[in-house]
Design brief:
The complex is a heterodimer. Chain A has helices spanning 4-10, 25-30, 37-63, 68-77, 82-102, 106-114, 121-131, 136-159, 163-172, 174-194, 205-215. By secondary structure, chain A is mainly α. In chain A, helix 3 packs across helix 9 (163-172), helix 3 packs parallel to helix 10 (174-194) and helix 7 (121-131) packs across helix 8 (136-159). Chain B is mainly β. Chain B folds into two domains: 22-204, no CATH class; 208-273, no CATH class. Chain B contains two helices and 18 strands. In chain B, strands 3, 4, 6, 7, 9, 10, 12, 15, 16, 17 and 18 form an eleven-stranded mixed beta sheet that branches. A seven-stranded mixed beta sheet of chain B has the order 2-1-5-8-11-13-14, with no helix packed on it. In chain B, a hairpin with a 2-residue loop joins strand 13 and strand 14 (180-189). The chains are: A mainly alpha, B mainly beta. Chain A binds chain B through residues 24, 28, 31, 33-34, 39, 42-51, 73-74, 76-78, 80-83, 85, 176, 196-197, 200-210, 212-213, 216, and chain B through 172, 174, 180-188, 193-203, 205, 208, 225, 227, 231-232, 240-242, 244-247, 252, 254-256.
Amino acid sequence: MSRAALLVLADGRFPAGGHAHSGGAEPAVTAGHIKDAATLETFCRGRLHTAGLVAAGLAAAAAAGLDPLLLDDAADARTPVPALRQVARRLGRQMMRAARATWPGPELDALAAARPRGAHQPVVLGLAARSAGLTPLDAAYAVAYENISGPATAVVRLLSLDPFDATAVLARLTGDLEQVAAQGAEAADRAATEGLDALPAASAPLLDIAAEAHAAWPVRLFAS
Amino acid sequence: MTRTLPRTDTPQAPALPAGGLRATARITARADAGGTTRLPVLDGGGPFALRHIQSHADQARVCLIGAMHAPLGGDRLRIEATAEAGTSLRVTAAAATVALPGRTGDPATYDVHLTVGEGARLAWLPEPLISAEGSDLRMTTTIDLAPTARLVFREEQILGRSGERTGALRSRLTIRQHGRTLLDQETAYGPGAPGWDSAAVLGGHRAIGQYLVAGPEFDDKPAEVRLLGAAAGGDADRGQGVLAPLGGPMALATAVAPDGLALRRLLDEAAAG
């Protein structure tokens, strides 16, 4: 096992296409819900404990070796709007390309063949972590961190927020991040014996509604 | 998530919290030899009283009457309704359900299990669930659909009575068809649910609802995405929502609003198609 691989996987420069997505921050900025570091932190905390927790559970389960195709179905059932299902698959396809180049392995090849248009990104990330020799908890950390670092980086561009302030927001959320990653890994552990219903299914109504509204905008800075 | 649960590490501690009501209500709709829907099982119990109200064409109609305040903390309530093959059943409620604090601080549970058989129709249209300040309710709704089943399902949650804060409300909605899970959604609001009132989750709204329609017609023609209320450019005080196709033959509307009245308008707008 190589813990250092986690740094490569979680690095914002890992070429998996995440930079084009704001994680719902763009519509939240436009609606006036995110206007400074404090409101960014509130938004990220809500996102982390809902969409982030679901993603952490899926990624940890994939890293633990649970069937990625069943996990992909479970991800669909936990994503009630098509805009977010499409985004998750598009990001999954890009993550797959990067992962197969970085940590090639037969399990990644098999998932890529079974889901040529992309599996849900947290499932692919979890499988990439597995291929890199990382643990389920490592995968949960990587996906949960990305879940909030994406919006924080986007808000630097959208609001011209000071990057120091945005990074301080992420630092203040590390306690929540640890909690969510641990919950995701613990749920994945239970899912191995109890079935996939044990995985978190936390929903965020405003993220779902805003994602569909945002997808209909004629001009936008971020893809989601 | 970190709420105080009864201690189970002391040898004397009971496995379940003492007190609290345990009640299960059951409804079964069955087609008779002539194809008319009958109700061979209509069992109330505890806080539930069930009334067979006048049938409408070939549809059996049941009204759920809350005979006392429930669920209180510590209560374990369950409703099972089955629309067997070829039947048509509509279930409504006479009034909202209010989750209230109990004497012990234990959470209450309220489990709803709906089963819809081949060619059957179920309309499940209760009144809102209101989470009163200090209450703690864990709700689950599990729906099993046969491949040709039709379902209309509405769920509304109001966080706090007028002018009060919300209780803790966790609710999981799972819909399976032919054994495959097509929707799995858990909501967690109020004390113990980090970030629940953020702009990612509720953003100050106090009424949340879902309206789900399932039927084989969506196999040929999936629902189209439709924005509702402020999401479609309306006033912010109307709330907002979206109607969208799910992975299977069904469509789900999700809406958030300042209050129950605005929420019902959004869900009615979704239902109007």
